[in-house]
Amino acid sequence: MICGLTVVDDSVVYASGTNYPFPFVDNPPPAVVKTVDGGTTWTAIDMTAQASLLVDIHFTSPTRGWVVGGKANPTVPEGPDGRDNVKPVVLFTEDGGESWVDRVAAMQDQFPFGEWGWKIQFLDENIGYISLENFNDGAILKTSDGGTTWKRLEIIDEQQNANLEGVGFVDENQGWVGGWGTPAFVGGQSSATTDGGKTWTDANEIGKFINRFRFLGSPVAVGYAAGATVYKYSKERAPVPGGTHLAAAREVLTTPFLESDAQTGDDRIVRIPVTVPENAGRLVVNVWERFGRLVAQPLDEPSPAAGSRVIEWDASGLSGNFIVRITVDDESDSEIVMVTPR
Predict the structure, then answer these.
(1) How far apart are CA 66 and CA 83, in angstroms?
(2) At 9, is the pLDDT very low, low, confident or very high (cuts 50, 70, 90)?
């Protein structure tokens, strides 16, 4: 599973993964992959000795860069998601991945178990940020010396924001974080700071469930965030939306998105209302758990009949947040679904 990608130039690209700790069920080992010929061939670097999971990656030259994630201590992951004994790693290389140094190895006692690095952003050659995800609270790492040393900053606001993923700053003082929301994975709230991460306030107006920010220009002129949808940042006032993000003729999801009925014992059926347009070639429904593992494909149907219908997904024995994606030909729409335990 590729979680992070960084493009150095037309020839050199690095990518990193995987999101689940290794070894955990059938998960492959963490790795960094690189190409030096524009993607014609790729080389994999086994990162098992350095990490149990890897998420994001950032390179500033063909040989110099960072990859972030977590490492289990001891090396066998614990807990239902394999993350109970994971702590962050911030791995740095100056030789294109032949050797690595963990820049936060000396501060492991400052991290709670069950926390790992998610996204990394550098404003310039000195200032950088890393979002830290754990299930109970929110925090980021900040560097002011080009990634040599890092400081953990807690994110405390009234909405109890936790489970952080996206981090984005437009300058050293003003920035945002987003993710899944409360410790119960509810809400997808966002938070903002205007003092470099010392204090935080609610900022849900910028978007929800944000996984990544990208800002362009120096100074920043425009930015984008991916979450419940794609959000755009600019100094110009955003136009009033003229409709849904899918063309009306291609609308896939209806509202309300789903209903959930309890069956006998722990069984339950999630009902997914769908509107299929005329002349559709294929209708697919996929369900992923919150870390990107495919848990179900309730439907994969060629030449589906046009009109409204309800797709049923048997979520027996499951609980938590899931991503349901409806795809009709080359158009997709997604929704985050909470299945409550019985």
Answers:
(1) 21
(2) very high
High-pLDDT (> 70) share of the chain, %: 89
Per-residue three-class SS string for the chain? CCCEEEECCCCCEEEEECCCCCCCCCCCCCEEEEECCCCCCCEEEECCCCCCEEEEEEECCCCCEEEEEEEECCCCCCCCCCCCCEEEEEEEECCCCCCCEECCHHHHHHCCCCEEEEEEEECCCCCEEEEEEECCCEEEEEECCCCCCCEEEEECCCCCCEEEEEEEECCCCCEEEEEEECCCCCECCEEEECCCCCCCEECHHHCCCCCEEEEECCCCCEEEEECCCEEEEECCCCCCCCCCCCCHHHCCECCCCCEEEECCCCCEEEEEEEEECCCCCEEEEEEEECCCCEEEEEEEEECCCCEEEEEEEECCCCCEEEEEEEEECCEEEEEEEEECCC
Asked whether the beta carbons of 182 and 158 are under 8 A apart, the reply is no
pLDDT for the residue 180: 87
Q: Could you tell me how many residues make up the chain?
A: 342
Per-residue pLDDT reduced to its tens digit, 117-135: 999 999 999 999 999 999 8
pLDDT higher than threshold 90 for residue 182: no
Specify the pTM.
0.81
Q: Which domains does the chain have, with CATH numbers?
A: 4-234 (2.120.10.10), 248-339 (2.60.40.1930)
Residues 6+ positions from 161 with CB-CB distance below 8 Å: 138, 155, 177, 179, 181, 182, 189, 190, 191, 200
In sequence order, the 6+-apart residues with CB closer than 8 A to the CB of 283 are: 274, 276, 299, 300, 301, 304, 326, 327, 328
Whether omega for the bond prior to residue 62 falls within 30 degrees of 0, making it cis, is: no
Lowest mean pLDDT among 101-105, 154-158, 210-214, 289-293: 289-293
Q: Decide if 136 contacts 108 (C-beta within 8 A).
A: no
Local confidence band at 254 (pLDDT 50, 70, 90 cut-offs): very low
Residues 110, 154: Cα–Cα separation, whole Å = 11
